[in-house]
Specification:
248 residues; alpha/beta; 8-stranded mixed β-sheet; 8 helices
Length: 248
């Protein structure tokens, strides 16, 4: 199998597609941060998608389990990323078929915005963690991805969150919650100033729009170093990264 066997619908990002590279690199930033927590740990990736993320974590973790609700995605991941310490299973993120307190690190990136039962999902993340375990969650910032809209711009998103809203949801499930915001850096920060490419609205642009073709030229050049993570006031961030610790 190859990434081309999975269809790019906007519900999940895929590697190896030049026009999708901005979103793929944006997702990789969170996995790079998670790698710093993963060495020697037992890790679960909840809503793992295509499988590139669990494969990254398996480079340093003792064991990684990737779970996704879509059987075709799990089949693809198993075929694409074989490794002795890496496995994939079909599961509902709201009803994980794993034991209590069985993982040191749970990551779940760009998932919560797709869910109906958010409280049950956070309960499951907490349940599968060992005491002192860490959950890492990302989601788009509603204030910047869908500004001024009552409905999410992405049709696959059921609810988007502000940093304050996400913190409030998480605080009832975890004992310690720290938020960081993802921002553009380097080339992408310069692009913000000159306004050459709009990476969010580009899919609404017709083929006659020159900014659509500027996107096609620029997207393959984007790298994780063109993003940065920082704390403090993150109301203007692109994505929210929450790092949550379960009580010992």
């Amino acid at each position: 199998m190859s990434p081309a066997d999975l269809i790019l619908t906007g519900e999940r990002t895929l590697p190896g597609i030049s026009r999708e590279n901005y979103w793929f690199q944006r997702h990789l930033v969170a996995y790079e941060r998670a790698e710093t927590f993963a060495p020697g740990k037992r890790v679960i990736d909840i809503g793992c998608g295509e499988g590139y993320g669990p494969a990254m974590l398996a480079r340093v973790a003792d064991e990684v389990l990737g779970v996704d609700i879509a059987p075709e995605v799990v089949e693809h991941a198993e075929a694409t990323y074989p490794a002795g310490n890496l496995s994939f299973r079909v599961m509902d993120v709201g009803s994980l078929e794993v034991d209590d307190s069985s993982f040191d690190l749970a990551v779940s990136f760009q998932v919560v915005e797709h869910l109906v039962d958010v409280s049950g999902y956070f309960d499951e993340l907490s349940r599968v963690l060992r005491p002192g375990g860490i959950a890492m969650i990302t989601t788009p910032n509603r204030l910047t991805i869908s500004p001024g809209r009552t409905e999410p711009i992405n049709p696959f998103h059921l609810r988007e969150y502000t940093p304050d809203e996400l913190a409030a949801e998480l605080s009832s499930h975890f004992d310690d919650v720290a938020l960081e915001g993802m921002y553009h850096a380097r080339m992408l920060a310069l692009n913000e100033k000159v306004g050459l490419v709009d990476f969010i609205k580009v899919y609404e642009m017709g083929p006659a729009n020159p900014r659509r073709w500027a996107h096609r030229a620029m997207a393959p050049l984007v790298h994780t170093s063109d993003f940065r993570l920082t704390g403090g006031d993150i109301s203007g961030c692109l994505d929210i990264l929450a790092t949550c610790r379960k009580a010992v």
